[in-house]
Each structure stands twice: as structure tokens, then as C-alpha cells.
Amino acid sequence: MEWYNLDKAESMAVAGMNALSKFEDKLQCLTLLTKISLARGNLDNTARLLGEVEQLEHSHSYHHDWIANADQVRIFYWQMTNDVSAVRNWLIQNPSPVSDKNHFTQVQWRNIARSRILLEEYHEAKAILDNLIETAEKFSLISDLNRALIVRNRLYFLQGEKELAQQDLIQALKLTRQTNFISAFVIEGM
């Protein structure tokens, strides 16, 4: 989902919701609608949709990749509302992935790193991000490398490490030519 295609993404998510007969199968579409609402800055609607996402999660069992995507929206929402209590509770209740060698575990590890940043646990966040970047480079996970660099750029910026932040920003911008993840820069700047 890119910020310049929100209407198209929304219509596709709604079409997906309408096409799926079982309510429990709609988590991914509902998560996308929640992300779109958040990108539009509609925090009240985002909170309502997150409630629906959580209701689905509590009543059904989902693969960890679906949960990671839903957690990502939650973390962004808490970042925007500065809800450190929710972040702290989420970290306590959710186990860390055993690996970081695929896209979905990378997503969840970035969620954890973002949470650590929100709690100002910068050392822990940096260790996670350094590992993610090393793994992404080793296994050529280009989109994950791009996103991890953007998150680490934000971490360095918050720590006043302007030179390191600039290095990560330049590397991430170069990778954006391959990934076209323009909105990732906007989201991390929230």
C-alpha cells in the first residue's frame, strides 16, 4: 500500500471483504483498511477498525504473518497516539520470533524495534535493527533491508546521531529505486 494509491487499495480491500464468505478470513483485508484509515489520519476510525481486528484475533487462530501485519498497524497507531502503556503491554504479551530469516519474521522484529524506540529503549532497538539489516543483506531481503534502514535512520535521528542517520537515509533512498517504498519514509516520520 502506497500513500498515492489509497483509494485503489481501499476499493480492493473492500472487494476482498465482500468476496470472502467467512468473517474469519477477512483479517488481512480488515488490516489493510485499518492501515489506510491510519494513513489518512483518521484515528477514530483506525481505533474502531483495530477493535474489529482484535476481535477476530481473539476468536480465531491465525498464521504469524497475518498477526505481524496486524501488529504493525497497532504499533503505528500507538506511535501516532503516543500510547506507551499499550506498547509496553504488547511487548510483554507477545513472544519474539525465533528467526529473522523471512519477510514476516522481519516484520515482527521491526515491530519490536519500533516498540523499543517508542519506549526509548534505544540500545535494544539498535541491536534488533543491526541484526535485521545483517540478515536482510545476507539473504537478499531487499524490501526488508530498505524498511529496517528507515527504522534505524529514525532511531539514529532520535539519538542525535545525524551522520549515522544520514548514512542510513542515503542507503535506504538508493534501495527505494528497487522497492519503490516511498510511504515507508513518511510512516517512520510520524
UniProtKB/TrEMBL annotation:
Residues 2-189 form the MalT-like TPR region domain. InterPro entries: TPR-like_helical_dom_sf (IPR011990), TPR_MalT (IPR041617). This is ATP-dependent transcriptional activator malT. The gene is malT_2.
